[in-house]
Structure formats: C-alpha cells, structure tokens
C-alpha cells in the first residue's frame, strides 16, 4: 500500500505539471504577441515530438525492462530543457527548443500510466484507482495555477511548472518499478506490430475520436478568453472537467467490466458529439463551465478502456510499446493535425466554426467505432472472446 501511494503521488504531480503546459501554453504564447497561426504551429510541435519520442521511449522501457528509470530520465530532461524554452521570445527559437523539450516531456504521462497499469495488474489493484490521482493532480493544479498565474502573471509560468515537476521527480525515485516480462522485447518483434491489422485499425479509430479532443485541449483557453473569461476561469473549466474524469476513473472497478471496452469507446464517442454541439451553442464562459462536466465522462470512459484494451492487441513483452503507440496517436498525431488545422480555422473564420468542424468529425469517429467493433469480432481474436463470453454464460 505504501509503495502504491508513492506511485499515486508521482502521477499526481506529473499531471499537475502537465496541466501548466496543456492549459496555459496557448495563453503564454499569446502573451508573447504571437499570431493564431504561429500559436497553432507551436502547439503542433509538442505532438510532433511525441509521435517520434513516445514509441521510442516505450520500446526502450520494454527492452531495458524498466519503466521507472526511463520515466525518471524523461522528467529530469523536461526540467532542464524547459528552463531554456521559457527564456526564449523569438518564434523560431521557441519552435526548435520546444521540440527538444517535448521529446522528454511528451512520453512522461504515457510512461507513468503504463507503469501504473503494470503495477496494478501485478498487485491486484484497480488501474483506475491509481490513475485517478493523475486526474486529481491535473484538476487541482488547473484550479490553483489559474489563480496564481492571474495574480503573478503568465510570464512566470515556468517557475510553477518546475516546482511541481521537482516534486514529481522526488516521488518517481521512490515509486515501485514494474516486474520484468517473461520474454525480452526485441526490435524485430516491435517492427512486426506495424503489420498487425487489429492494432492498425484500432489506432486509426482512436485518431478519429481523439482529434476533436486534442483540438479542444489546444484552444479551450483561447475560446474562454474570446467569450470574456480570464485565466482563473480557464483553470476552473479544467478543474471541473478533470474532477469528473477522476470520479469516472475512481469508479472504474464498478463499471469497467459491465460491458466490452469497445462498447464504452462508442459511448464515449457519442458523448463527444453532444459535447461539441453544446460548445457551438455556448454564449458565455459560464456555459463552458457547465459543458466541461462532459469532459470527464467522455475522456474518462474513452481513455481508460482504450488504454487497457490495447494490451490485448500486443505481446506481453511489448505492452509499454503498445501503450506509448496509443498515446502517440491520441496526443501526438491528433495533436499535430488538430493544432495546425485549428489555428488555420481560427485565423480564417472563428471559434464557433472550429467547434462545428469538431462536431462533424466526432460523428465520423462514432461511425468508425461501430465499424471497428464489427471488424474486431469477425477476427480470430474477437471470435475467441465471443466464445469465452458464451461459455461463461452457459456455466
């Protein structure tokens, strides 16, 4: 139990630090006087770095059979490179250094979640009960940091981020590591994942659903400012969304096994459709605060079930690689395309047009979830699952 609490503390402060980046980087770049298109490009740099770095660090943790040490290296790298990034004011220098910074920081959340998933399985603890502490850290930090940055100025963003990350590093040095897999990962087996149609189609479906989520992550703060809100309102919005997310994670032991993971993914996709429609109709920051409740329901259902489901699609010795591939698509590929397209739409039209586009894309994601479900249960692996379910009902 004591070791589990150290892991929970690590996740709490990792996600607390990540809150600063997700919630306030757009506002910080706007403070520097950058345009909407420039902000969109910079917001795409992080996901682009994630696409390259996350599968790499995931594979190295499988190859070296230690998630904890790889995660610790990424956190320390993020602390050092972050200091340099936030000294820059020129667009080109920020873009270059931001890539290096996110090559360390982007995998941190995924590695932390992968470590939590492995430890939960090995110790018979609910993954959601551990992962919820990451959400609690995200929500608490988003609320408090909003007031702190409104009080002391957005230009001091690094000092708040560094304070939280140092505490995360402290907990990481004391958190438990995962037990080594029975078989050691190899580059050859990792490359074979590219020929797995169940995995490839799953990641494609994830992209359709996650794209709208990542666009909102990038531009929610600016939308709130557009509607007349302040930094503190941005923090409150994230707090509401992430606290409901934590509740969904915390209750996962009661709901997770009631339906197949693909069913929950379709439900989450439908909630995203409703959420973006309501955002199109929002007229004030108060409207956005009410709509943020749907963040926890959609993301909580989607992320938790998809993160655990992908372990069924990869060999045991490549579980961290699979987790980081999922994270790479969810936060990387979707983030690059979403940030670039979102910036262009905002410059060319307005925020309501952006959320209208997200609404239609979420409908496409919902359709993709139905198509994948049909494809999966027609595969050999899906048929085996259906047979096990049928055998269990007969007994």
UniProtKB/TrEMBL annotation:
Indicate where this protein resides in the cell.
Answer: Cell inner membrane
Instruction: Recite the UniProt keywords alphabetically.
Output: Cell inner membrane, Cell membrane, Membrane, Transmembrane, Transmembrane helix, Transport
Q: Return the GO cellular component terms, semicolon-separated.
A: plasma membrane
Q: Does the keyword Transport apply?
A: yes
* Position of the signal peptide: none
User: What GO molecular function annotations does the UniProt record carry, in alphabetical order?
Assistant: lactose binding; lactose:proton symporter activity
Taxonomically, which superkingdom? Bacteria
- InterPro entries annotated for this entry? HcaT-like, MFS_assoc_dom, MFS_dom, MFS_trans_sf
Q: Which Pfam families match?
A: MFS_1_like
Spans traversing the lipid bilayer: 12-29, 35-57, 69-86, 92-111, 132-150, 156-173, 193-213, 233-255, 262-282, 288-311, 323-346, 358-377
Q: How does it sit in the membrane?
A: Multi-pass membrane protein
> What positions does the domain Major facilitator superfamily (MFS) profile occupy?
1-180, 189-395
The protein here is known as MFS transporter
